[in-house]
Amino acid sequence: MYLEPEIDLGLFKLEPQSIKGFELSVEEQNYEIKIDSPLIHYFEEKPKAVTMDQILLMDSLKSIPDITYLRKMGAEILVPLNAKGKVNGLLVLGDKMTSEEFLEDEKEFMTTLANLAGIAVDNARLYELATVDMMTGLKIHHYFQTKLKEEMDRCRKKGTKLCLLFTDVDHFKRFNDTYGHQAGDVVLIEVAKQVINAAQRHHIPARYGGEEFCLVMPGATEEEAMVKGEEIRKAVESMVVKNPNDGTDLKVTLSVGVSSFRTTDRNNKDLIERADKALYQAKHSGRNRTICYKD
């Protein structure tokens, strides 16, 4: 199992995809360790693999709730990922298949691998910070343009499909003018969540600019993109957004434009312009709707 850091929340959270060989209850699958846990402090001072038998000999750790819970889950050895003197992940392993004890050289090998993994995780996090819009969690404009070009090049070479969704919050200026920029920011954050939640793993959700968000959909047909656009639009329409000033509900709707890759497209601009025109049509035909570009 792997516990990954959620820095903003001040904890390490169990990565669902890493649960292999462990039979965990729903409660156990939601297990978290706080960053200020004595266990994390211990690993920051001594960043190396340690068995449960060793931990049970440590007065400072043997009785803490985290150890009790990890033992219940079947943990036999803990291996911290470390970078720049900070723990940035935790590997949790069960029994060896041979039922033998872990040897010192095996623990040293695990520690070495974990240190390399810790550096890789740190580098990946730095890359993430450089490519993500901090307010919304969406990819930044430059990243969007780079990836869109890559996907369009792939379409030209392999004949695959590609669709682009453009979304725009209806009457967004009115939110800012009426309720203030703080309320406007809350609206953007909540809408971005719906775009991110709707995106599949190979999709690229990004912030194009202002209140315009987009979704690059490699391999998608126009019909599939329209379904996805409607999914996002309906999710936004049904969500409840609280005004941060007085707690009242804010009604939010979204217009969506869809375009698909054409072999005649010279560059990103051609595909983007069609999505933008479809979005313009959605805005000027009543808003709160999804429209696909047609010649």
Give a nutshell description of this structure.
By secondary structure, this protein is of the alpha+beta class.
If you had to describe this structure to a student in words, what would you say it looks like?
This protein has two domains: 2-131, GAF domain (Beta-Lactamase, 2-Layer Sandwich); 141-292, Alpha-Beta Plaits (2-Layer Sandwich). Helix 7 runs antiparallel to helix 8 (181-198) and helix 8 crosses helix 9 (222-238). The protein contains ten helices and 13 strands. The strands form three sheets. It has a six-stranded antiparallel sheet with strand order 3-2-1-6-5-4. A five-stranded mixed sheet has the order 8-9-7-12-13, sandwiched between helices. With 295 residues, the chain is α+β, with helices and mostly antiparallel strands. It starts with a strand and ends with a strand. 44% of the residues lie in helices and 22% in strands. The longest helix has 28 residues, at 104-131.
